Amino acid sequence: MSDESVISSRSLTGAEPWLVLPAALAVPPGAGAICDDEGARKIGRGAAEGVFMGGPVLVAHASLTARRLGLSPPARSPDLLDVLELWAFVRPATFCAPSPSGLALALGMAEPRGAEAQAAALRDAAGALLRELADPAYPHREDAFTLAETLGRAGWAWAERVTGALQAGPLRPRQYRGSGLDAWSRLPEWEDEAPRGEAGSAPVDSESARIRLEKLLQASGLDETRPTQSDYAAEAAYAFSPRNEEGRPRMLLAEAGTGTGKTLGYLAAASLWAERNQGAAWVSTYTRALQRQIDRESAALWPDPAERKRKTVVRKGRENYLCLLNLQDMVQAAQLGNGDLIGLALTSRWAMQTRDGDMTGGDFPGWLPGLFATAAGQQASAGNLVDRRGECVHAACPHYRTCFVEKTIRASRRADLVVANHALVMTQAAFDGARSARGLKQDGETAALKRIVFDEGHHLFDAADSAFSACLSGQEAAELRRWIRGPEGRGRRGRGLEQRLGDLCADNEAAAKALQDAIRAAAALPGEGISGRIAPPSGEVNPVGPIEQFLMAALEQIRARTSEAAASASSEFGTECAVRPATEPLLETARKAAQAIAAVEAPLLALARHLEDILDDEAAELDGSARARIEGALRGLDRRARMTLPGWRSMLAALQDGGDEPDPDFVDWLSVETAFGRIHDVALRRHWIDPTVPLEAAVILPAHGVLVTSATLSDPIAEASGGDLFGMARMRTGAARLIEPARTLKAESPFDYASNSRVIVVGDVARDDPRQTAAAMRELFLAAGGGGLGLFTAIRRLKAVYERLGPDLARAQIPLYAQHVDPLEVGALVDIFRAEQDSCLLGTDAVRDGVDVPGRSLRLLAFDRVPWPRPDLLHKARREKFGGLSDKGRGYDDALARARIAQAFGRLIRRADDRGVFVMLDAATPTRLFAALPPGTEVQRMSLVEAIEVTRGFLNPLP
Fold first, then answer.
1. Which of 202, 212, 444, 849 could form a disulfide with 268 if both were Cys (CB 3.0 to 4.6 A apart)?
2. What CA–CA distance (Å, rounded) separates 922 from 804?
3. Are 184 and 402 in contact (CB under 8 A)?
4. What's the pLDDT at 338?
């Protein structure tokens, strides 16, 4: 063994028994290394596989390690010790990127470079975490010891070492004698408070906003006030001034280039308004990453963590939060041998430490459920721990008083700043609007939607498109059946209407009858396994019920109207075809499907009316628990009986009555979703051609002030041709139809892009050849020394490039990660990419929109081709409506692609001292698509060889 191949690691020989650790294995793509008491050294893939399978061994993310070795996700084993699980036990609800480097950095160590250094760091991280447990100051050690004993009985690989470390410190007599699994019984309860009342109308003037901004900057340790940021805060105050007439909100479209400091700019105005008017200002984002950033930056407003927790609330949909009843059910099942007790125990430990119970983008380690395979050989999922099906029993739940969702809802009613997402704001506003139209009270958490900041405002159009669309699919209809009838298969979990409402309706004959009628009618909806009946891989089709027959007719029309080549080309997205002209089988089955849906809708509406009557007639007798249950049930019934089902009937009616002429306001089409070469679902879909119509009605017009902000709202091409600089933004936000025109603001970025960035279009790479794309990205990534982000417009090409890149980069000690390949969610991949300064990442538009990586971790961004909008039926209709006639809609396509390129470029330079190279590997890229890049950027066209040299020289200049 040569000196160069060994990195010394402190020997643990002679240490406490709980600190004696096995070898650590690190497996970056195409490489492998182990570290034991003799040091760290490289090993081949075969040897690494032997160490991994033979154990005992330390790893970081067992499933990802197995994927690197070409193995199936491993089951739990006493010889396979995942250090990430140890982290989840020792530091629950604390961030860590799921890799050896992520562990090292989270523990304050230097970033390990190369496989040997990563293996050594992994072993050192395990030792550091165990020593932390042994520290006498470790908090709640008695509770930790109780849970560790339970985990030991369940066969947890770390149990003996963890209990040994905890016993090395002082253990007081335990007051708590449980298993440690029952977080649901030990969490604090929420308490109701008096209503806050309607917010006031005191204005926020520009000068006050400037002064508040200066104070925020000082609290953040930033003494310098940038003029553009101060001007931005002053202009943002307009959205927080009182409106003069109903339906005429104060709306501001504000573009703020990267580095302007727009977050603190609008927080200055928003916090002043909330303070003066005793109301909540809502900040809505498109990505989870920005939600976390806003939450962090609110520390400048309220430095005390306890006060900030009261003043700032991150609000998401119910499906994002841990359901304590689901956790209890799954823990009890796992104790009987049906489930992953160890993973659930670590989740329970997290539940005792979490800030708000958010499992998607909060402080829950999203990588935890995927570390090991389940007994069925599939990756575990946190999906069953949240209420994604709307089955909450509300006040009937034994954990209602400790429920994370209820706590967050109540906290949002008292907060000064509510950080939400576009989808929640829109769906809740539409729901509240429908209730108000019927004279019912609005949901308290969004009745205060009067002052809204839409950050990442360039996504507002797409968010509205999703929120106000309708989809009648096999999976959606089966989900509704399950919501009504409950789980009908053996071993399935869930709660139907009978279980949720039966006792509330027992003394009301009309309500009880409506409930039973709805349950019977729902039998006509598709059940589980619909795709196997209407599109089996082999054998005869066997549709059950009118809706399955309709969807089978839809599938036959799609097959008849699309070519085999087109279906193959669309395999990543599925296949679609226009509804009109409809075939006779489709029209006939549509009529019967509409009748079946109406038969479900009628008793659900009746049930809702009877529950409303109970609230009214029995107001003096109903206790708070029963009232809360009925109100919760009404919210679910309203969404389905007054929104979803009428939407389905409307689509089917339009199909039968509309003839061959398309609806001027909507696009209806049929689609097929595929997965792994098989049909997963069939659907009839309806989208607004202009989704800002319902956006304006449900959200914009009822508000008093709206600020839409982003780094990319304006379109310089439109201004250059004599048009409106913000014309596209007005159209895509609903501002174009306002009686009182929206104000606009354009604040330039303070960064020196001419000095700190390069924009290159490579002219000699064939974009349709994955081998050439892979070779180009490989050489560019190597020239940059890592820190490269490769963006793709198709998953198929991403995977093809990944397979060729990994080994070559590994030889240069550059780790490579990829969306749709590695068994990690996008957020976890970005966390690793951010933590490892020289790693590279491949992804699609989800990565482009959600990545925030300042510094050298992102210094090269390469697009495989121009991100043109996908020319599907919906886009074609919008291009015809918005694109104009002179250039056949080319300007509309250009504007969308130009905005995507500008957004991607904005990911590259996040700080004043960042340096980055933007490369487009598509020789046909029109220069006009770069018009939205910041002033100072210059587009250069050159060969790949020249681009490599420019990249190397610019990013790694000689001293």
1. 212
2. 19
3. yes
4. 85
